[in-house]
Amino acid sequence: MLRALTLALALCLCLPAAQLRAQTSTDLQTVLQRHADEVVNPGRRSVDVVITDLVAAGLPDTATFLERWADKGVYQRSTDGLFYYATRSGDEFTITDISTGEPAGSAPAAEMTEIRPNGGVRRVLATALVQFQLSDPDIARRIAALDAISRSPAADQVEPLRLSIANEPDPALKQRKERLAGMLAASFADTPAERIAAIENLSGALDVDVRAVMNLILTSSADVAPTLPEGANIARTLTPGDDISEAEAYARLVVANLAPEAASNDAIKAVLTDNIIDGRVGGVPVGQLNTTQARATAYAALTAAGTVPPLVTDESRAAAIAQHVFFEQYAEPDPAITDAARTALTEIEGRVSRYQVLDLGLDALSLASIYFLAAIGLAITFGVMGVINMAHGEFIMMGAYTGYVVQLFIPDYTLSLVVALPLAFAVTFAAGVAMERLIIRHLYHRPLETLLATFGISIALQQLAKNVFGTQARPLTSPGWLDGAWVINDVVQIANIRIAIFFLALLFLALILFVLKRTRLGLEVRAVTQNPGMAASMGINPDRINMLTFGLGSGIAGIAGVAIGLYAKVTSEMGADYIVQSFMTVVVGGVGNVWGTLAGASLIGGLQKGIEFFNPSNTLAAQTYMILFIILFIQFRPKGIVALKGRAAGD
User: Which residues pair with 225 in a beta bridge?
Assistant: First the structure.
């Protein structure tokens, strides 16, 4: 009956509009009156008759009625026996004509009887309603119907879903229907050939739902028997000692009632206690049962007399295991179907693994670009001046807050970003120059004092930010065109904001290389880096170069702060989240070298993502392992990937 109902629904959904209009000469009330008893007291079988007749009538308001019926919103009035939609208001019901949807006045509560279908009937109504909704003009209803099928797939949904595909106007929804129809066919198609064909068609997919369907087909259960059962679809045989432990194997025998349960020491003592006769148990005096050997002798005597079952010994356990076969059996009886599903799942999982490597690589590249932006300013400062600037993270924080302030005055996020980037550079450049002129210049060649001073400055800048902006995170909103992600497939995707940061890192790489290689400032910076004494004798002012270099490094940190703030929280402590990674990037890559910083950022970004992939639940452990690796790396290559030349070499 349910299959006939499904076919009738499918045919109804595919009828042309002209045919539907021709069938609506009979209204909904008339159809319901023909089955009044079934509507008032529906059962799982009788409700099929009502639904089949409703489908055959082709009434446009049938879906609404089924929905209200399932929600207990249908009433029968005793005076005329007609059905209505009704809402209670005090001692009366406001009623609505069930055929037209127009108000039909009111009726006393005593005249109205609520139709209450039970849980089984409501499930049938829900199935029928979903099939109606598959071709509903409202796309939201069609999406809801597909969601309902995905949550509770059933065999009777295959044909209606297939027939609704041809008339689906939305391309994305049509593709989803085709995929869902394929998954249903893989599980519920009528013939093995159809199921195998559906499984093979799904082998090119990557989504989790398809893998779930394959795993469901390949569901197996553990079993044990004296011999392998004939005709069973065996997933694999298990060897005790290799695939499963001998203890687990014997436990399965006990559960299957194929071997006796081993008696515990307490159980043995209880048996011996129950069989004390004249102060003896099995001929052994009770006073002598204080040793394991004596208790075993007494129990053996009881066993020989047939009083208790024999104990399970290591020999009997091994013999019982050897006399049986342990195996896993597929729930699906057809081997051809499970073979096809296993082949498809292997192919899918292999493809997923390859794409996971690509996705991990993109994540590592994205993280490396962030670390490069955060560290490049520090690399220039440290390389040219030899200053360990612990306040570098606070320049990143200043840049992020500059972007936030700009957005307070310029609500257009794209324009505010265009303004914020150069302004953040200017603000942090000025702050860096001021810091170098006021403090750093007096501490050259005194690394410990420099470290302590810059650390104190970082604390002061954090507190200043808290006083001005508060302790709560402030929003730095990215433009709308940076929302969402670039989705390659169900496995590989990367956020648009991270792509933008990657291209920003490339832009700065090119810009810094241009400044260092093609401008007078870059020439002077390289000269001071390699040999400050010789550079001074050639007319270059090292003091001025140090000031500009420190300002340049600080300005780049400000721009990095704007970029990082677009996806990370903007707080007074945000710089502390990147200062450690920045120093590691500079040290590992090679101090004062742009290419070394790029190499260090790539190594640390890839290493961190790789560790997180194997230990995703503990990011702190991932950072700890990364630091240990870097410590070992520096032991073998203390000058970094790209060895520093010039001042550091001379020093």
Answer: 325
Q: Which residues contact 160 (CB under 8 A, 6 or more apart)?
A: 6, 9, 10, 13, 131, 134
CB atoms closer than 10 angstroms to residue 135: 20
Phi, psi for 616 (deg, rounded to 5): -70, -20
Segments of the chain scoring below 70 in pLDDT: 1-25, 383-384, 591-592, 616-621, 643-651
DSSP string covering 369-399: HHHHHHHHHHHHHHHHH----TTHHHHHHHH
Query: Using one digit for the tens of pLDDT, what is the confidence trace for 417-457?
Result: 999 999 999 999 999 999 988 988 888 778 888 888 989 99
The DSSP secondary structure of 184-223, one letter per residue, reads: HHHHH-SSHHHHHHHHHHHTT--SHHHHHHHHHHT-EEEE
What's the one-letter identity of residue 452?
L
Largest CA distance in the chain: 118
Residue 516 buriedness (CB in 10 A; 0-12 / 13-18 / 19+): middle
Residues 6 or more apart whose CB falls under 8 angstroms from that of 644 comprise 383, 590, 591, 592, 593, 596
DSSP E strands, 212-331? 220-225, 234-238, 280-281, 284-285, 325-330
On whether the CB atoms of residues 606 and 364 are closer than 8 A, the answer is yes
Tokens for 536, please give them.
């001074």
**In this structure, are residues 553 and 347 in contact, taking their beta carbons and an 8 Å threshold?**
no
State residue 532's pLDDT score: 74
Contact 564, 366 (CB under 8 A): no
Cα separation, 634 vs 625, whole angstroms? 14
**SS3 assignment, position 84:** strand
Question: What residues contact 441, with CB distance under 8 A and at least 6 apart?
Answer: 543, 546, 547
Is domain 353-650 classified as CATH 1.10.3470?
yes
Residue with tokens 């081997």: 335
User: 304: how many CB neighbours lie within 10 A of its CB?
Assistant: 11
What whole-number distance in Å separates Cα of residue 414 and Cα of residue 249?
66
Q: Residue 287 carries which DSSP code?
A: G
Q: Which residues contact 572 (CB under 8 A, 6 or more apart)?
A: 397, 462, 463, 465, 466, 469, 471
CA distance linking residue 146 with residue 378, whole number of Å:
54
Contact 512, 505 (CB under 8 A): no
Half-sphere exposure of 102 (CA within 13 A, CB side): 2
Separation CA 83–CA 370 (nearest Å): 66
Q: How far apart are CA 504 and CA 393, in angstroms?
A: 19
Task: Report the pLDDT value the prediction gives residue 89, as an integer from 0 to 100.
Answer: 83
pLDDT value, residue 114: 86
Query: How many separate helices (H) and strands (E) can be counted in the chain?
Result: 28, 12
For residue 347, give the DSSP letter.
H
Distance between CA atoms of residues 177 and 523, nearest Å = 63
Neighbours of 474 (CB within 10 A): 19
Give me the phi and psi of 278, to 5 degrees please: 55, 40
CB distance 561 to 395 below 8 Å: yes
The three-point CA angle 600-601-606 to 5° equals 100
What stretch of H or E contains 114? strand 112-114
Residue ranges per domain, the chain? 2-133, 222-330, 353-650
Instruction: Identify the pLDDT of residue 617.
Output: 62
